[in-house]
Design a protein that fits this description.
The structure is a single chain. The chain has nine helices and 23 strands. It has a six-stranded antiparallel beta sheet with strand order 5-4-3-2-6-7. It is flat.
Length: 413
Amino acid sequence: MQQFNSNKQKEKVYIAIVVVGLVASLMLFAGLSSAVLVRKMDKFWVNINLPEAFKISTILIIISSVFMYLALKKARKADKRSTVYSLILALIFSIAFGAFQFKGWKEYYNQGNAVKSFITFVYGQYGQSYKVYNGNHPIEYNGEDYVCQGKVLDETSINNLKSFLRQICGYGSRFEGSNLKLLNYGDPYTLYDVNNKKRLEINSIGLSLNGEKISEGHKDELFKFSYGVCNDQPFFMLKGKYGKDFSIALNGEDLIYDKKKLYFPAKELSDNERQAINQKVYQAGNEYSIKNSKVYLNEDEVSDFNGFFQLKPGVNIHIENDFWERTKEELNPNQYAEFYSTSNVSSSFVWVLTFLHFLHLIMSITGISVVTVRANRGHYNQDNTSGLKAISVFWHFVGLLWLYLYVFLEYIN
């Protein structure tokens, strides 16, 4: 076993070991952060507002770090009582930090941010395979509201709809098989099979279509359909209001969502984008040429041109005097196809970063607990603070790491 000639030598070795670990952690988080930034600018990305619990946990870990600093300072003055008290408070606040972290990640998960999931409710999306009829009238979901006979359903009507579908999905998150013998079926709600264009019937064998019992695969999809409605996820996998709780970006540009449709926002063209346009535009019987950021008619520059033209399929340009704008544009079919098949990559990255952060947190709380017990036994004094200093440095690092993660996650979203 390594023998140390002095406490100073021991402290240097302990700190060196901690620093090596911190450098390795920094490199790992730097690599993951770079991957997040690269991925965000490529294809679809989900921007998510972090739960309020994370703000509280940030304050708690700062307070805990302050008490760790005071504990080390008191230990160097051989003030055992103040050292122990400071360490106990640092431990309490570190545990509180962990508790609010758990609360925050639980809220994050309950928002629909699973380790691996799609952006939209791919299987079981309302209206994709099933919908509900109220009497002889279909209940539609337009991407924002449930509508029946042209009227938006109020909260009471939506709760009645959910109560009906709870008979299918219950309160679990997985389909475990069922005969689906629904009470009060048809009074007033029935289920409609979109693909077969027929309403499901109910008899002694449970739900059936054309007199035959529906398959387990259809039951599973019916479960997901019901689960989506009952958990306020009829379209997106994420809960909440678009634009407030989350949003979707494509190639780093935030998209506008309106009733199951996504649009690029209107934006002014940059000088380089204007320079890149070179084409002819026909308007009011005239042929205009657009090149080098100028509009020409019969080789004469037109300064008051006002009109729209299609740059390419799905991309329209509006020019008014000298203001060039790409108009609000809906995603094209290929982009929609990619959108519906894209997983929530941002959530996956967040969970990876969280898991690594959680490991650091567990090690830190364990270390603080150990040095608190040792301090209570009078282990630390002005000549021996090596273990306490090592844990203190590590805990300050964890605090700075969380601050970085919090700011980083807020920034990328």
